[in-house]
Amino acid sequence: YISYRIFRKAVILRVNPQILTNFACDLQIVNRKRIIDKQQVMLNGIYSILLLVGANVFMTLAWYGHLKLNQMNISNGWPLIGIIAFSWLIAFFEYCMQVPANKIGFEGNGGPFSLMQLKVIQEVISIAIFTVFTIVFFKGEALHRRLLGLMLFNFIGRPQFISYEHIYKNSFMR
Q: pTM here?
């Protein structure tokens, strides 16, 4: 099928209309692929963040869960090596989520985030998960102090997402 517009351009350019039709179809395929690629990059970012949330839940349990077990008199008689082994067993599942999250989310592997962005996202998620963990399991920490810390960290971490190259290109100091 050759449209009138393609036929007219082919006559003007003195080219076989079939060649222009194939070229137009190729352009449509490329444009569709770009849309699909953008969607895949966005999905990779979502998957990466979800995996980071899961990894940080396991990380918080591995690092601080034994303290709750001690409060509940479950791990009081355990030797230190037993507590370390218990924590490493939980941390294994953290690594099973953390490594794929970084691999999927990294821009060099088709994700939307730079290395610095992945680290800042991980830290913000880590503090949020720790805040929830502290409130739910230990009930001893004040919520307003944790929220203030999270807001300060968000404020400090936010400049990492600014593209300084963009600022330089648009500045008067070029």
A: 0.62
